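Pipeline run #58 for the internal structure catalog. This entry was flagged by the ingest filter as a single-chain record with no existing model, so it goes straight to prediction. Upstream metadata was stripped on purpose; only the residue string is passed forward. Reviewer on rotation: M.T. Logging verbosity set to normal.
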Amino acid sequence: MPAMQRRSFLGALATGGAVLGQSKQFQPEWASLRTHAVPAWFEDAKLGIFIHWGLYSVPAWAEPSGELGKVAPAKWFYQNPYAEWYLNSIRLKESGAYKHHVATYGADFDYYQFGKTFEQQNRQWKAASWASLFRDVGAQYVVLTTKHHDGYTLWPSKVPNPRRPQGGMNSPRDLVGELTTAVRASGLKMGLYYSGGLDWTFEQRPVATMGDLRTTAPKTEEYARYADAHWRELIRLYQPSVLWNDIGYPALAKPESLFADYYNTVRDGVINNRFSVDFSDFTTPEYAKYDKITAKKWESCRGLGFSFGYNQVEGPDQVLAADKLIALLVDIVSKNGNLLLNIGPKPDGSISEIQTDRLKALGRWMAMNSEGIVATRPWVRPSARTADGIDVRFTKKGDALYAFLLTRPATAKLTVPGLTAAAGMKVRLLGGGDVKWKQAGADLVIDAPSRLPGEHALALRMTPAPAPVNP
């Protein structure tokens, strides 16, 4: 995408503008809320950056046991690879995290003592440096964890925590506000994460099993008022474009009232499906993705490695290689999804070398190929496979069909299967130029240039779009 065109597109994303059909007032009733339409910016914006940053970024330790879904449920919380779950992990005395904590800090070191270190180290953090990086990666929106399960907020909330009257549970620096301003100045949308279902200052029993996620969720009216006041404070102060809740929400907080007030305040806002109600603008599979085109908008969230929070233990064996990351993005987009890709900064706000390397590789690829990603829609089918075993993914935009070859071919011919050329069709290799092609039965055979452009997955633009064979 040309630089001027890209800036114009990002500016439109950031400012939002009128959203077709969204000028009405929503009522705090499910029938009214279900008339909400997903705004075009979220349909168009295929890549978001998720940020987990907080007290857990100081110890930055978790067992790199495996991705969610690939570790036995009975062992998950005792070998939890999520560094942001450090407080829960050290409450389980049989866990590796507890042993690490005792050996490193001592058995009597309270988790919330990490607050002083976190607040001291983040004083030099510059929000603009993150925003610039995210823009260069090719992301269109950002989601920041404002409060994770440990209850510490990244903004100086005026809502008192009744279980921690001594204070120390709110950042004295408005990290949320500073990043929100910087992200929007860079032309991106800003969303906010909030842990509505778990708060370990209200419930100190550790989560040891999946069933404990339900039984340790605070259900009192006191907590419902607290969580509702937090979300409303976040909406009033920052007008987030995404409400990204986690692990459920107290029914006593009346989420339908919160949703109506949010939609009436933020006209182009969206709400995820983790409020534990039968309503959402999009679904959020975690470390997972759908295997077919899904009509309802969805967003796959995951870390670059096994953890969301920064984990000093993770290395190349746990972090996605650049080619795998790019193939993941293309696959998700071909099926009507967004990728919300997480980074875990260090407590001083710096981003580890390995995470920065992956982000920059993705940015280089997006600079060349984003026209086949951003503002596209799924085609009649998401995928195909060439005779030599290369996986292909499809997207469409206007009269163009994009075919992505997820691995680079070893031959001088690129075969895209199951397509019938349109009259006068032209084929262009993104980052390269127009290429010659011919119809060979049900396939298009394309002459590859002697030198393929860029790195990793290749993208072909075909206009007018060919027709599918046996769709």
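catalog note: The radius of gyration is 23 Å.
catalog note: The chain has two domains: 3-372, 383-468.
status: ready for reviewer M.T.
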